[in-house]
């Protein structure tokens, strides 16, 4: 029995509907009290900016599904993923009086997966100390503007466009940006506001082989090469490799380091493109679940690319753990060759995590007794980051997080400078050699640092932690071989051809309680690609393991072939009555007899069909890929002319019937055809997919008949 891990939550939608007017009041306050002053202060052209009308509309936000994580989570937290969609008929009008400019928003759509983390759980009411909200990856955002052109003519905004604005908004919703709502005042919000990454993923983007040639010459007569490059995504971190000209087997040999805040659920996404003057062509993609990489620590292998006919990609992935002690720092430094000459480049040996809290008693900048607009510039080596600007204050509170990759903490410094954005002058600075952190307890300092070149008692409050990146290899038995779980949108063609599992042996009914012998793996089975190998190490030999999380290797059968089974399920002998040809009847009877005696170990008596079945909740469709059949019954001396017919029961109307093409004179037909049925996820769980393999026979011929069902 398969329970989907995403559940519907209609009760939640009813609750949200009831709360919607109050949620709207909160959003209105947010616009008026937070967004409006921030926009006014951001640029002096916008000092007359105001919202004239804010109406979020009466259509509440919908939650289409909820998933609660129960594995791989801390005992003191609850992680929920909410699939939300908001299609709002809002009216938000704004004006900038100084430029007589009016604009607004007519409707907003947001679709995406929002993660809600309830943590820490505490032994006191209200049990939940705080909750954090964010999107795991950029949500789909659509805003229908009115008067956008007037708005973009205002000085200071003329560099923007609607797509840039959407990008800025959606990046604000994605990790590491998160909204934290404290529910208990005493909670150490500091630890919530100081999120430690779960780990660092080091991606060695090495090479690819046998990519598709996309560039053509002489109007397509001459096949050319491609100019491949890769785009690598983890969360909202995006890396792009260099382009290698005219090469179908490019070698990039590049290394990227990405922070992983959240797995379960985060993936490494890679897409390859062919650079073209007009539009870059797609050369394949790959998604790797980071849980697998974390288990393995180190993966170095070739992955077959998805969504294209050919091509492989060689990656080496390292999962680096954040260690709060410096004991194996020297080992790490040697392994990344942190030589003396270039102290700022190269691979990272440590991660610097910094929480910028606030500053006090800042000097007043150039003009006496006017308050500055302070921002903080932080840098380690060549990498610099800056905080947001706080307006008109000498006691700014930032509450922002920053992370830096550090090549060699023994020789690098953190430089901090507070600047006044208004007069472009420095309000104070200080330098912290990272070697000081190596001496502190837990490699962490949390204190007020005195600023030099500043006021007499100007301080800045920060929490700084250093974490050594270590590749801990887990102890494994030497014979244990494992490969990353590749999420496949659909099976690649080579995988389809080779991914019939070695047959599952069936125990004869007499001793059905004995353990099933493991099936012999033939040589041909070893040569299959990654999809084949991606079985979890504890997979029982009883049933083909989950290939790309779909039931691609459905045996057209039910676990064991005991005679009692046959009578309950599909009364197989009835198939015999369907068949008019003596040769087929004979073969069928023989197979059924073998079946009852339990002699054909490891043979599905009527053959097998290979399907991939998945449900796309975005398109509300059940998608069935009919790959192929094998070992079908011969209808005549020349074999059979099989085709596959499907219904999604209880619907047996003509319109609900799906048929593949007919494969002539073969017992091992390959169809590779995709069909879909329009049906929602809750509905699909009450339906049955009826698949029949039939013999076509000619027009008016007697050879029509059923070859098998599942």
From TrEMBL:
Pfam families: C2, SMP_LBD. Residues 548-562 have a biased composition (Low complexity). Keywords: Calcium, Cell membrane, Endocytosis, Endoplasmic reticulum, Lipid transport, Lipid-binding, Membrane, Metal-binding, Repeat, Transmembrane, Transmembrane helix, Transport. GO terms for cellular component: endoplasmic reticulum membrane; plasma membrane. Residues 474-573 are annotated as: Disordered. It is a peripheral membrane protein; Multi-pass membrane protein. Its main location: membrane. One of its GO terms (biological process) is endocytosis. InterPro entries: C2_dom, C2_domain_sf, C2C_KIAA1228, Ext_Synaptotagmin_C2A, Ext_Synaptotagmin_C2B, Extended_Synaptotagmin, SMP_LBD, Synaptotagmin_SMP. CDD domains: C2A_C2C_Synaptotagmin_like (cd08391), C2B_Synaptotagmin-like (cd04050), C2C_KIAA1228 (cd04030), SMP_ESyt2 (cd21680). It is found in: Cell membrane; Endoplasmic reticulum membrane. GO terms for molecular function: calcium ion binding; calcium-dependent phospholipid binding; phosphatidylcholine binding; phosphatidylethanolamine binding; phosphatidylinositol binding. Residues 5-184 form the SMP-LTD domain. Residues 523-532 have a biased composition (Basic and acidic residues). Residues 533-547 have a biased composition (Polar residues). SMART domains: C2. Residues 183-303, 328-453, 605-710 form the C2 domain. Belongs to the extended synaptotagmin family. PANTHER family: EXTENDED SYNAPTOTAGMIN-2, EXTENDED SYNAPTOTAGMIN-LIKE PROTEIN 2, ISOFORM C. This is Extended synaptotagmin-2.
């Amino acid at each position: 029995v398969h329970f989907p891990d995403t559940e519907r939550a209609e009760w939640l939608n009813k609750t949200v509907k009831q709360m919607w007017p109050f949620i709207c009041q909160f959003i209105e306050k947010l616009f008026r009290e937070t967004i409006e002053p921030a926009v006014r202060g951001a640029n002096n052209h916008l000092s007359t900016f105001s919202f004239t009308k804010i109406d979020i509309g009466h259509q509440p936000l919908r939650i289409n599904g909820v998933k609660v994580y129960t594995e791989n989570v801390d005992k003191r937290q609850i992680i929920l993923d909410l699939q939300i969609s908001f299609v709002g008929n809002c009216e938000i009008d704004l004006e900038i009086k100084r430029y007589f400019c009016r604009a607004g928003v007519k409707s907003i759509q947001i679709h995406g997966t929002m993660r809600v983390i309830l943590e820490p759980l505490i032994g006191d009411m209200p049990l939940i100390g705080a909750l954090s909200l964010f999107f795991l990856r950029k949500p789909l955002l659509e805003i229908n503007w009115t008067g956008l052109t007037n708005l973009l003519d205002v000085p200071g905004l003329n560099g923007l466009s609607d797509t840039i604005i959407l990008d800025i908004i959606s990046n604000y919703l994605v990790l590491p940006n998160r909204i934290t709502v404290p529910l208990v005042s005493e909670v150490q919000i500091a630890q919530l506001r100081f999120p430690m990454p779960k780990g660092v993923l080091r991606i060695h983007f090495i090479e690819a082989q046998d990519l598709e040639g996309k560039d053509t010459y002489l109007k397509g007569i001459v096949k050319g090469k491609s100019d491949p490059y890769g785009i690598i995504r983890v969360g909202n971190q995006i890396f792009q490799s260099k382009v290698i000209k005219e090469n179908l087997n490019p070698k990039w040999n590049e290394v990227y380091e990405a922070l992983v805040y959240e797995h379960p659920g985060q993936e490494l996404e890679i897409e390859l493109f062919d650079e073209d003057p007009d539009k870059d062509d797609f050369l394949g993609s790959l998604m790797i679940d980071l849980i697998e990489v974390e288990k393995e620590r180190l993966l170095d292998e070739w992955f077959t690319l998805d969504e294209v006919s050919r091509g492989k990609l060689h990656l080496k992935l390292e999962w680096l753990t954040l260690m709060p002690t410096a004991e194996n720092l020297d080992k790490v430094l040697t392994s990344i060759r942190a030589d003396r000459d270039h102290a700022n480049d190269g691979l990272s040996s440590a991660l610097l995590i910094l929480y910028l809290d606030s500053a006090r008693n800042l000097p007043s900048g150039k003009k006496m007794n006017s308050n500055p607009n302070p921002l903080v510039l932080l840098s380690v080596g060549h990498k610099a980051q800056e905080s947001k600007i706080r307006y008109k204050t000498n006691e700014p509170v930032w509450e922002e997080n920053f992370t830096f990759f550090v090549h060699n903490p023994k020789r690098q410094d953190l430089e901090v400078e507070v600047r006044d954005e208004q007069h472009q002058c420095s309000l104070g600075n200080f330098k912290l050699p990272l070697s000081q952190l190596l001496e502190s307890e837990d490699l962490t300092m949390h204190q007020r640092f005195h600023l030099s070149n500043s006021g007499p008692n100007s301080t800045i409050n920060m929490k700084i932690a250093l974490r050594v990146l270590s590749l801990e290899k887990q102890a494994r038995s030497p014979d244990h071989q494992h490969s990353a779980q590749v999420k496949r949108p659909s099976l690649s063609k080579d995988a389809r051809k080779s991914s019939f599992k070695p047959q599952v042996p069936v125990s004869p009914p007499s001793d059905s309680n004995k353990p099933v012998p493991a099936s012999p793996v033939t040589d041909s089975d070893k040569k299959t690609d990654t999809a084949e190998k991606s079985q979890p190490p504890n997979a029982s030999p009883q049933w083909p393991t989950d290939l790309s999380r779909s039931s691609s290797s459905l045996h057209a059968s039910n676990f064991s072939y005991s005679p009692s089974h046959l009578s309950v399920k599909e009364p197989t002998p009835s198939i015999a009555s369907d068949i008019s040809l003596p040769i087929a009847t004979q073969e069928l009877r023989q197979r059924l007899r073998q079946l009852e005696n339990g002699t054909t170990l490891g043979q599905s008596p009527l053959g097998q069909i290979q399907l991939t079945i998945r449900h796309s909740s975005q398109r509300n469709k059940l998608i069935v890929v009919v790959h192929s059949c094998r070992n079908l019954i011969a209808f005549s001396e020349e074999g059979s002319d099989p085709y596959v017919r499907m219904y999604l029961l209880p619907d047996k109307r003509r319109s609900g019937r799906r048929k593949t093409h007919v494969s002539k004179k073969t017992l091992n037909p390959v169809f590779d055809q995709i069909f879909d049925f329009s049906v929602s996820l809750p509905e699909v769980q009450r339906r049955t997919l009826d698949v029949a393999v039939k013999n076509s026979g000619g027009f008016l011929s007697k050879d029509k008949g059923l070859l098998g069902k599942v």
